[in-house]
Design a protein that fits this description.
about 350 residues, alpha/beta, Rossmann fold, Dihydrodipicolinate Reductase, domain 2, 2 domains, nine-stranded mixed β-sheet, six-stranded parallel β-sheet, 11 helices, 15 strands, about 35% helix, globular, binds nicotinamide-adenine-dinucleotide
Length: about 350
């Protein structure tokens, strides 16, 4: 039976997800379609629905009547009430990251999601280059990871293609570059390196939006004395919408990439510099997408397919809420360290 999907929140990322789902369905890769859309901005809902021959609704409850699966793509503060409404109706939920603005609300969202098949929008978990990095580090073939440098930067995302005022409001976003953007990076660091023992952090606010950090510098110290640093910056270089560079110094190799999707993952050893291929699944070639948007949409198609495949077996997709919550706990400790002038704090017990 064709899975019926509803979108709550029909802005930037919902458009990308819905293009991905439409292309997956159109190519016969999944048996699912977008049937309903709701946004407090009715024009946005109308636009998204229009590209899927879907209906718009006036509120969440009637959207829930029309679908089995809900993609929650509102701004961050609205994830909790929408997830609660969907879970109370037994719907499966794809919830965008961050789970919520505060850790207490993240815990609530996670507890709700765990009651139904779900997946969280930490889409870097599906990026071929980070899969290759995680595999290379976990295999141990380059020795232990000693030190990692992770840099993430993008132009202040209340403009350009993001065009969203809510990202300058901490009550809606929870904070700035660290929680809103680098929750992805904290999750990737946990995935590749495991849980740190200690966290210290500094944040700064250079653009004058109270409560919105636009620079964050974190240090994670691991039980084996290895370290990782994360630098996360929102700037005004409009040609840089989002960019990541990661370097992992292992005992016997430097692994690095400056592309957060396809890589390549470069490997420098004593003998040679080589590349580990990080490619998308072959089915991505079957998606009917305009060439200029394929790069943007493909990562979300991979994430959507993972979720819809999991749903076909009644399971949740990866990453699950518990994974996202663990990243949020680290982000929360980092903000507390920053509030204490960068003092080292123990990482939360797992
Ligand atoms: N995983 C990723 O790669 C990724 C990328 C971008 C954004 N995001 C996350 O997705 C969420 C949305 O971001 P965006 O860039 O699409 O923002 P956006 O401003 O473009 O869209 C958000 C939409 O939600 C609507 N909305 C707000 N409250 C609502 C409610 N209660 N009911 C219905 N609609 C409501 C707004 O009117 C708006 O149209 C955020 O949590 C953001 O952090 C994730």
């Amino acid at each position: 039976m064709t899975l019926r999907i509803g979108f709550v929140g029909c802005g930037h990322i919902a458009s990308v997800h819905s293009l991905a789902i439409g292309a997956l369905g159109g190519a016969g890769i999944v048996d699912a379609r977008v049937v309903a859309a709701y946004d407090t901005d009715t024009e946005r809902a109308r636009r998204l629905a229009g590209s899927h021959d879907a209906i718009t609704t006036d509120e969440v409850e009637s959207l829930l009547d029309a679908c089995e699966v809900v993609w929650v793509c509102t701004w961050t503060s609205e994830h909790l009430p929408v997830v609660r409404a969907a879970v109370e109706r037994g719907r499966s939920v794809f919830c965008e990251k961050p789970l919520a603005p505060s850790l207490a609300e993240c815990e609530e969202v996670a507890a709700l999601l765990q009651q139904v098949p779900h997946q969280v929008g930490l889409v870097l978990r599906h990026a071929p280059v980070f899969r290759a990095l995680a595999e290379a580090v976990h295999s141990g073939r380059f020795g232990r990871a000693l030190a990692t440098v992770f840099r993430d930067d993008q132009y202040f995302p209340n403009q350009g293609m993001y065009h969203s005022d809510w990202r300058a409001d901490p009550s809606l976003a929870g904070g700035g570059t660290l929680i809103e953007h680098s929750i992805h990076d904290v999750d990737v660091l946990r995935w590749v390196l495991g849980d740190p023992a200690q966290v210290s952090a500094r944040v700064a606010n250079q653009f004058g939006h109270a409560g919105i950090d636009d620079v964050a510098a974190l240090t994670f110290a691991y039980p084996d004395a290895s370290v990782a640093t994360l630098i996360s910056v929102w700037h005004q270089v409009m040609r840089r919408p989002s960019s990541r560079r990661v370097e992992v110094f292992c005992e016997d190799a430097l692994l690095w990439t400056d592309d957060d999707h396809l890589g390549p993952l470069h490997v420098e050893t004593t003998d040679a510099i080589s590349e580990i291929e990080a490619s998308l699944p072959a089915w991505v070639g079957d998606l009917e997408l305009a060439p200029e948007i394929t790069g943007l949409v493909a990562p979300y198609a991979v994430a959507a397919k993972a979720f819809l495949d999991a749903l076909a077996t009644g399971a949740s997709g990866e990453p699950e809420a518990a994974t996202a919550l663990a990243a949020h706990r680290l982000v929360d400790v980092a903000y507390r360290s920053a509030a204490a002038g960068g003092a080292p704090f123990p990482a939360p017990a797992r």
